[in-house]
Amino acid sequence: MNRHRRAGLLAAVLAAGGVCAYAGPGAVFEVDFSNPQLIPAQWKLEIHPDGSGHFTSVRGQAPRSQGEEIEPPDIDRDIRVSSQFASHAFKVVERKDMFRGGCDSHLNVAFQGMKKLTYSGPDGQGSCEFNYSRDSEIQALGDAMVSVATTLIEGARLQMLLQHDRLGLDRETEVLVESAADGRAQEIGSIRDILERLAEDPAVLERVRRRARVLLSKAND
Hints:
Elements: H1 3-15, E1 28-34, E2 42-47, E3 52-58, E4 76-80, H2 83-95, E5 114-121, E6 124-130, H3 136-164, H4 168-182, H5 192-200, H6 206-219
Antiparallel strand pairs: 1-2, 1-5, 2-3, 3-4, 5-6
Helix pairs in contact: 1-3, 3-4, 4-6, 5-6
């Protein structure tokens, strides 16, 4: 399934609405991701039913590419996603019985990174781990969480570029606009602070400010 179809599937599920029984007090949904070939090689995204959460990332040991620009720092920060997005995640938890039925297809497919989905709450707990899942809903959920992590990592990269390489913001904001358009980056509102800074900073290029405003309009959708 290509990225456009995955984004469409997620949008359709989100539009369904409804109340999730797995979204009570103390409920937590977590995604642990690892791929030693990427930077960062590991990250963990924690989401609560109200959209609050936490994100951490660790660079790992992958070598720097020749000509590599400024890398994002390791991240350890509270985050917030939309209540609609959080609701979707907990509905999948409910439909998939806390992931206790397993996730991985065990197919010989390209390595995309291991994703461990974990739910814990007053009603129980469960987890499963996969590279690629035959279950289209679980695969779409994993892809969506990777897309949120992409947004958060790009936000940290923008922070670094604003401090150390303002000209680098030109290409980076262009990439982020493209990623937000095709679903590779989701929940743009989670990096609202840096986008607002860019949109209002007269010291950066006008097209960077314009792209930041475009991204902020998506954060308000």
